[in-house]
Amino acid sequence: MGSLESGGVSFKRDSNNLIRSYSAGRTERNPFLYRPRSRLSRFLLFKKLDYIQWICTVAVFLFFVVLFQMFLPGSVVEKSELGFSPRRGVELINKDLLYLKEVGGLDFGEGIKFEPLKLLQKFQKENREMNMSFTNRTLCRFPYRKPQLALVFADLLVDPQQLLMVTVATALQEIGYIIHVYTLRDGPVQNIWKSMRFPVTIIQISHKLEIAVDWLNYDGILVNSLETRSVISCFMQEPFKSVPLIWTIHERALAIRSRQYTSSWQIELLNDWRKAFNRATVVVFPNHVLPMMYSAFDAGNYFVIPGSPAEVWEADTAKALYNDDIRAKMEIEPTDLVVAVVGSQFLYRGLWLEQALVLKALLPLLEDFPLDSNSNSHLKFIVLSGDSTGNYSKAVEAIAVNLSYPRGTVKYFAVDSDVSSALSAVDLVVYGSFLEEQSFPEILVTAMSIGKPIIAPDLSMIGKYVDDKVNGYLFPKENLKVLTQIVLQVISKGTLSPLAHNIASIGKSTAKNLMVLETIEGYATLLENALNLPSEVALPKAVQEIPPKLKKEWCWNLFKAFLNSTHEDIALKSSKYLDEVEEQWNHEQRESSGLIAATNDSFSYDIWEEEKNTLMLNTRKRREDEELKDRTDQPRGTWEDVYRSAKRADRSKNDLHERDEGELLRTGQPLCIYEPYFGEGTWSFLHLSSLYRGIGLSTKGRRPGTDDIDAPSRLSLLSNSYYRDALGDYGAFFAIANRIDRIHKNSWIGFQSWRATARKDLILVLNPAFLVIQTDIARTWSDFGSTVKCGKHKVTHNHCKMWQLHRSINASYATLVANASLSRIAEKALVDAIETQKHRDSLYFWVPMETDPRSHLRRDFWSFCDAINAGNCKLAFSEALKRMYGIKHDLDSLPSMPEDGDTWSVMLSFALPTRSFLEFVMFSRMFVDALDAQMYDEHHRSGRCYLSPAKDKHCYSRVLELLINVWAYHSARQMVYVNPETGLMKEQHAVKSRRGKMWARWFSYSILKSMDEDLAEEADSDRSRGRWLWPSTGEVVWEGVFEKERNLRNHQKEKRRQQSRDKQQRMRKKHRQKVLGKYVKPPPDEIENSNSTMSASETL
């Protein structure tokens, strides 16, 4: 396994991928016990001497009895003491046991260690790359918004995982994260999240299992439990594959089921789960046992953040449900004092020996508990283990007999899950494992939570949380005599001492909030390493700056009302979910197999019917053709005429293709809005009306049953994944503009990003005078039209009505939602303005920069561009314009984009005349080529560019997103903002106010056209320029192209004429052979004479 270190020790079961316990027989574990027989014994056995066979059999039996007794722990303790070293865990001083260990009979778990090697190496590599600097480039960060996280749950029912995530989310919020909670099903915990000011959204899943959430709005996703598998499938689709995903798993159900899937050959179901594990950036487990249990799914992305309130939660539940029936089931009397010997969750082979030593040290306790009349002792010892499948109980019985424990005093119980119920029936817990674990043992947390005193060896991880004689007892692992002394102090006169009860009470309060610090700091550190934040996002505070009070305890006070109520068992709930998944999978398998069988039966019948009908039609047609053959004149012509007719028929057939309803409706409209998209994750945000038409940037992710445009088939450049990602929506612009008259026949053209449809501005209203915005930006809602006063804020009339409605429903919490895409009213207003030519040649846009979460209040254009491009937007523009226009010296200034109180367009959602769009594409192609020339080498080699602080495959897209504003402003186009809800329009940056500020000569059509023709002439020439992007972004057209095509056509026509003349000349000069002779027909009388002569000869 990629992220586990075995250290040369095998700790997996043969078929179950779990840690192997003492389940094999002694002969299997110690192969050296099979001694070869001597020649004398073989001679005696094979000679069939009855008395000698009997004597030998008895001797061999006694030999094995002595050998078995010699290697039991009891005899070992009698012979010598045991020594321990911190490096090896348990070192056996006795020579016989040292030999036993050397031959491989035992191991003591030294190699059991989990290290996320691949994940740590990945984080280190990314940190090194982040610290690398570009030559003459400085990467800046603009803290305009806080990092945003999405917490995804299967439900909001009350369980310990909700308690953990509420505690973690509260701490993350303090260091600068903004958190949004999503859930598939509602529950009581929704009120807790809302009381902590976390917005909660219940995900609506359509009948096609589509989830309409734009996950690109978040810098990271935290998914919890196995039941969120349906949500993870969204992140396995584009464009959400690159979103950092952290999946927390605390259930064991799937790890156990995976072995059943393997044995029952359900490999497809197993692979389906593997895909989900592979998609996660990090898979987080709360302990070090679960990663090993889930080893079948490990993709090198496992990580452990120790600590969970689950043990305390389950202990409280078990204590509330405890009764004497538990002791009765365990065959323990109410008056018995019970000591539990527990061990590590890792069932290594030497665990039985360690527990045997502990039982040896506890043996003096029997002196204070004399036997009753039935030879029973009121002191009971139970050994708890997680191995329910092996024969560990036989080993415990053998140890008890060897140590001379009275019969029935030592018992073994296998507990796989319900540890709390078993521990609630005991009085004292002794930890009998000397393995140095990486986190505090969960079984001790459970025992302390129930209020049981614990005695444990002074291992480093245990000593970190347990103080001797304060909240527990510790004994040195080198000296087991101290354990005997502690036990005699804890149990006096047949009961627990008052000091032990006091220590147990303190231990219970300690366990209630154990490892909260490690959990919170673990999640904060993981997010710090796993997230690659954009340049406009402020870095969160350091982990050390989390307030200490938040790291002291779980948020028990928020769940106080639910602690005494009964809740569904987590393991049972996970098992039910896996049953549903298996049932659905089996149903799909049965459906597919049944469909195939039914298809095969009907398929053969359909083929026979079709063949029969075809044969009848062919026979009838042949008969009709034969009848009409002699009645009609057959057309005559050359093979060239036949070939031309066939080609003409093919062309006419292609021209008469059937047009769907959407295409027919768009024909009569002045405007068609295209929606570029990439991947199945965007389908739920695309429109289906005739005003819109999708354009897929990838052939694989196109919507079925629609007339969407396949961009790669129109522009082969988009088949290259590098440019498809780097260009973004501009790839769709270039694909549409390439021979645009073949697909777009409307006078106006528009584009709308699917993210505009998905985006919602969510506002939390806490009181009439205070607004807390999701993006944490104090933003004024203005529609550039009629506004009203609502509290102390100026918003639209509709917004104020919605706000007042929510205030009347809930005075402490209300929401205000507004889409960024065009509403039906706005669509009608836009079409009417185009038809009436209200603004003539204008650029209409409906997503203003002020509503963008990346914008900080009312920043100017270039500052906003720098913020989203690591502070290098102006540098990129300057270098691109220099290369584009061939300027040798440095530019002193950039095109002016004044801050005059008006807004700019973002998210590439606009509409303009088709003719103007082609002019814009002509300018964009040259700009993109200049931008690519300066960034391609570094970006293609390392994945990094100076427009982003981290690796980013969408390097160019953020600069290109704002390019439409520069072109429209300096080409003297009117810029009109359309309110996406009301349809109200207002001109921005009036043309009259731009006089003296525009770079009109740089952006004039004549200049751009001449530059385009020069590039086309160069591309059409034979001169080699090396790698060059411009010819691949669209048509290469200049005046010489038409002349070349005309000359080519004339040359082909002249060639055909010459071929025809040559053919005629050959026919004229064709050599004809002279006639060798002529046949002369004899006269009729000679024919008659010859016939009569022949008949006479025949009669003779």
TrEMBL record:
Keywords: Glycosyltransferase, Membrane, Transferase, Transmembrane, Transmembrane helix. Residues 1066-1075 have a biased composition (Basic residues). Residues 623-644, 1048-1100 are annotated as: Disordered. Residues 373-507 form the Glycosyl transferase family domain. The keyword ATP-binding does not apply. Residues 1089-1100 have a biased composition (Polar residues). The chain crosses the membrane at residues 51-72. One of its GO terms (molecular function) is glycosyltransferase activity. SUPFAM superfamilies: UDP-Glycosyltransferase/glycogen phosphorylase (SSF53756). It comes from the Eukaryota. This is Glycosyl transferase family 1 domain-containing protein.
